[in-house]
Write a structure and sequence with these properties.
Blueprint (H helix, E strand, L loop, with lengths): L13 E8 L5 E5 L5 E2 L5 H14 L7 E2 L21 E2 H11 L2 H11 L1 H10 L6 E2 L16 E3 L1 H12 L6 H11 L28 E9 L2 E9 L4 E9 L8 H20 L5 H4 L1
Antiparallel strand pairs: 1-2, 1-10, 3-7, 4-5, 6-7, 8-9, 9-10
Helix pairs in contact: 1-2, 1-3, 1-4, 1-6, 2-3, 2-6
Length: about 280
């Protein structure tokens, strides 16, 4: 398979990225992929793995109503904190995490499973430099973990490849996690190049692509990890960008580079060059 050319990346940004052929495991692109980055909400994937595993074992029931501990109430990302009814079942909370990276649903499920158990998921899967570390917080004060989650491009690309192959815990657990990730509405990063309907792409959509992904965002972070299959090939990818400590907000050059990488991924999985004139 043809390699993907990494575009010129802004040197002020801390990058960790890897793109692999999801079937052969061939590395198609790599840039400092062992560098550890803040990954914002990406660690929620490990929470979804724990929840799916407990549903499969019977330790949790999909319809079980979850109470939200008062000390873990948060706002910002998501919908649950805006809803009149905030008592929902395990399956619906997991769906909210997959769809809108819901912070309140995340904290409810972490509290249900136990933070230590969720933290242990990544280690159990063999990852050394990638994990969910903490609850989502309204503010991160001294003495708290430095970030809600962290990771490397290499390990996150491998995670998405293994999920796509049904190799995380079991085929059923992998499939359930991918089903939750299928409804992710944030296609602003790498996935922006796929031109999918952000609200409806659970089935093959534009140019026959099927996307399963998770994004993470803070004021100094953009991360997109995913698995995309088209009529020609399948790719697993992880692109992490941090610019903490910089005076400028660098989201514009970061998102431009992510979209350029996404465009090359689209070409690999579909085999179709884009008609630039038709887009003008």
């Amino acid at each position: 398979m043809s390699a993907i050319t990494v575009p010129v990346l802004d040197a002020r940004v801390r990058w960790s990225l890897r793109i692999v052929d999801a079937d052969s495991e061939e590395i198609l692109a790599d840039r400092t992929s062992d560098l550890v980055c803040e990954t914002a909400s990406i660690g929620k994937v490990f929470l979804l793995i724990e929840v799916a595993a407990r549903l499969e074992s019977g330790a949790l029931a999909a319809g079980q109503i979850v109470e939200i501990p008062a000390e873990h109430r948060v706002a910002d990302s998501g919908l649950l904190y805006l809803m009149e009814n905030q008592r929902h079942c395990v399956a619906d909370l997991a769906l909210l995490v997959g769809a809108v990276s819901d912070n309140l649903a995340t904290n409810a499920l972490i509290a249900l499973c136990g933070l230590d158990a969720v933290r242990a998921v990544a280690t159990t899967l063999g990852y050394r430099d990638t994990s969910l570390l903490d609850y989502i917080r309204n503010e991160r004060r001294e003495g708290m973990p430095w970030t809600p989650s962290y990771g490397t491009g290499a390990e996150l690309a491998d995670l998405m490849r293994r999920l796509g192959a049904g190799l995380i815990v079991s085929p059923a657990v992998s499939a359930q996690v991918m089903a939750w990730l299928a409804v992710d509405t944030d296609t602003s990063m790498v996935a922006s190049a796929f031109l999918l309907d952000p609200l409806a792409h659970t089935e093959p959509e534009y140019e026959g692509m099927v996307l399963r992904h998770k994004t993470g965002t803070t004021s100094v972070t953009r991360v997109d990890v995913g698995h995309v299959r088209g009529p020609r090939a399948a790719v697993a990818y992880a692109v992490c960008a941090n610019w903490r400590g910089e005076e400028d907000d660098l989201r514009a050059p970061v998102l431009a580079a992510m979209r350029e990488l996404g465009e090359q991924i689209r070409l690999v999985v579909t085999g179709r060059a884009r008609d630039v004139d038709a887009l003008a």
